Amino acid sequence: MAEAEQSGFTFVDKRRVSAETPAASAETQAEPPLPPVSEFHPSTESEAAHQAGLPQLAVTDRLLMCIDILHQGAWIAMGLVADPATGRVERNLADARLAIDSVAHLVDQLQGRLDEPTLAELRRVVSDLRLNYVHQSGR
Prior knowledge:
Blueprint (H helix, E strand, L loop, with lengths): L1 H5 L16 H8 L13 H9 L6 H19 L15 H17 L6 H22 L2
């Protein structure tokens, strides 16, 4: 403490409550009242202005995002990639198979709606997932 005073700093503990002050009044003084609920919900005008800057996503774009999520989930479930939520590598081949089958189904649904190079890439993704699944299930 002597070193702190020499450097020009003093430490003051403001957490203490005096014996005369009841604890309940100290708690009520510490927190201001909450604002009305209407302040948490933006007006419809501001919502419309915010959404005007966002691009509209077509169903095919949303399906491609789902494919990407399931693709990554399949790698995680096969135990080939660490789960970003836990940092652990765990195998769950039943979940991997479900994710791979779902990716394949979504790719089939997109035929005729995407250009051929994109479809070829998606088919390659499904093939890679299936080959790795067979390899992992044989271990």
